């Protein structure tokens, strides 16, 4: 079953078109990786999916709800379509546990005790429970990203969008974050990942999209992308990445 | 005549004499100066938060004509307010406010009128401070807040304002220090703050230099104490705030 459907999505910045009439869909419980050169529109596409980026044209359906409709309650939708950012964006004035509780209390209206237990469960799952009382700003990059993942998981999303989650990390910390992501991907969550970690993409993806100049050039399985690929642009990109 | 005869003729002797005879008046003036400056800054800060919210409207492609007009109106009215209060002297504002209201039948207690003028004036300056403080917060903070479903208002309330206010504490403190000095202009409407008391004492003895050197010293002491107090508060607030480079691989022990 498709959990997200995108129809004719276009987006421009100052007259420069970065997404050009994209049409695709994402099946529930699958892992899709989006790869492609810098500036190809991958991150903009991802950010359009939870409407952090307003689109110019097209429709985005989450289940059967059109997110581009004026009366769509995006705040509620965003609790179901979580996002993990390249630069973590933890709330630095809060502790680790508060980062994971604020959304639950303010948006999901859970009581503090319930939110605390839920947050602790997810901090446990990313190996950060012992840092619960720490100020977010005192953590290392890898730890911050793991907390950011726990914060997203605490909202019980159905879809998680990962926007280059390891690009800001030291190589030594990348492994830990990827490990946490691998664990999440074994659950019944729909994950859409923009990444430059080709090995990771090969290991976890049910499907890979290759984007270039605002369009999806190739849409297929890991094998389609890495073994049987004849598209010149994709070959060039993969050669450069290897 | 007796008063004038009893005061020592030398400068230092005059200062000591005036202080000894009138310290109660000066303390009364200090009380009002501190009260109006502190309350005025606090009320101004609250008003500034409101004005800033009006000023930082988020435009959306989904906005209809009504929303666009309302947002534009909110932004423009906030801008006009800030421009007016920053563009005219507080002394003039005090005159217009106090006598203007009196003319249409509202005679406010003088202290209250002074407090309102300082609050309104402070709000304009702090709106600009808040706006730049908010602009200084990484846009990602707002995005992360919206990404977990917080509304725009909730994002500002729980995520952006607390961080911006913390960054702006020195600027807000500075405004308080400026207000301590600027309350002097309220003497034009008869607020019995420190400057007003100084003028009153000076007029009693016809010794303006001595009376106002005392006033200057008192302002200086107030400002130094307030600056030190604010520095302690800022230090406390920022004590546990450690920002590491993203590549930092070892967690830091926070004591």
Q: Write down the Rg of chain A.
A: 18 Å
Fraction in helix of chain A: 25-40%
Provide mean pLDDT of chain A, rounded.
92
Q: Separation of termini of chain A? A: 34 Å
Strand content of chain B: under 5%
Share in β-strands of chain A? 25-35%
Query: Quick check: average pLDDT of chain B?
Result: 89
End-to-end distance of chain B, in Å? 66 Å
Shape descriptor of chain A: globular
Order of helices and strands of chain A: EEEHEEHEHHHEHEHEEHH
Q: Helices and strands in order, then pairings?
A:
The complex is a heterodimer of chains A (242) and B (255).
Chain A: E1 2-13, E2 16-27, E3 31-35, H1 42-49, E4 57-62, E5 65-66, H2 74-80, E6 81-84, H3 96-106, H4 112-125, H5 141-153, E7 159-163, H6 171-185, E8 190-194, H7 198-204, E9 207-212, E10 215-220, H8 222-226, H9 232-241
Parallel strand pairs in A: 3-8, 3-9, 6-7, 7-8
Antiparallel strand pairs in A: 1-2, 1-4, 4-5, 9-10
Helix pairs in contact in A: 3-4, 3-5, 4-5, 5-6
Chain B: H1 2-6, H2 11-55, H3 65-87, H4 90-103, H5 110-135, H6 139-147, H7 152-182, H8 194-205, H9 208-238
Helix pairs in contact in B: 2-3, 2-5, 2-7, 2-8, 2-9, 3-5, 4-5, 5-7, 6-7, 7-9, 8-9
């Amino acid at each position: 079953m498709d959990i997200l459907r995108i129809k004719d999505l276009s987006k421009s910045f100052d007259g420069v078109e970065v997404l050009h009439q994209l049409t695709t869909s994402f099946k529930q419980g699958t892992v899709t990786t989006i790869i492609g050169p810098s500036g190809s529109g991958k991150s903009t596409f991802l950010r359009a999916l939870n409407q952090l980026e307003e689109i110019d044209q097209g429709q985005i359906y989450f289940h059967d709800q059109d997110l581009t409709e004026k009366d769509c309650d995006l705040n509620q939708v965003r609790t179901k379509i979580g996002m993990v950012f390249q630069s973590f964006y933890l709330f630095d004035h809060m502790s680790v546990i508060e980062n994971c509780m604020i959304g639950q209390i303010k948006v999901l209206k859970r009581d503090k005790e319930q939110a605390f237990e839920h947050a602790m469960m997810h901090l446990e799952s990313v190996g950060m429970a012992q840092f619960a009382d720490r100020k977010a700003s005192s953590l290392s990059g890898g730890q911050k990203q793991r907390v950011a993942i726990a914060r997203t998981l605490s909202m019980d999303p159905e879809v998680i969008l990962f926007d280059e989650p390891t690009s800001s990390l030291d190589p030594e910390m990348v492994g830990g974050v990827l490990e946490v992501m691998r664990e999440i991907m074994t659950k019944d969550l729909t994950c859409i990942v923009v990444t430059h970690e080709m090995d990771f993409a090969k290991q976890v993806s049910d499907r890979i999209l290759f984007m270039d100049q605002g369009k999806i050039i190739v849409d297929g399985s890991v094998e389609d992308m890495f073994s049987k690929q004849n598209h010149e642009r994709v070959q060039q990109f993969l050669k450069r990445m290897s | 005549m007796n008063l004038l005869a009893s005061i020592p003729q030398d400068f230092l002797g005059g200062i000591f004499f005036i202080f000894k005879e009138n310290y109660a008046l000066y303390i009364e003036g200090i009380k009002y100066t501190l009260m109006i400056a502190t309350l005025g800054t606090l009320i101004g800060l609250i008003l500034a938060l409101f004005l800033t919210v009006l000023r930082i409207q988020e435009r959306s492609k989904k906005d209809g004509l009504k929303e666009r007009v309302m947002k534009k109106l909110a932004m423009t009215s906030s801008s006009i307010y800030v421009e007016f209060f920053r563009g005219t002297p507080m002394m003039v504002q005090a005159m217009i406010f106090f006598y203007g209201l009196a003319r249409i039948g509202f005679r406010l207690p003088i202290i209250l009128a002074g407090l309102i003028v300082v609050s309104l004036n402070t709000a304009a300056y702090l709106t600009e401070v808040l706006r730049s403080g908010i602009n200084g917060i990484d846009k990602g903070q707002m995005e992360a807040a919206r990404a977990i479903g917080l509304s725009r208002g909730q994002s500002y309330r729980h995520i952006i304002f607390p961080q911006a206010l913390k960054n702006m504490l020195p600027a807000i403190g500075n405004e308080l220090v400026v207000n301590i000095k600027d309350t002097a202009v309220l003497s034009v409407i008869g607020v019995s703050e420190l400057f007003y008391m100084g003028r009153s004492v000076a007029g009693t003895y016809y010794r303006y230099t001595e009376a106002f050197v005392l006033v200057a010293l008192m302002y200086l002491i107030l400002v130094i104490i307030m600056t030190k107090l604010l520095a302690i508060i800022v230090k406390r607030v920022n004590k546990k705030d450690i920002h590491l480079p993203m590549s930092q691989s070892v967690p830091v022990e926070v004591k």
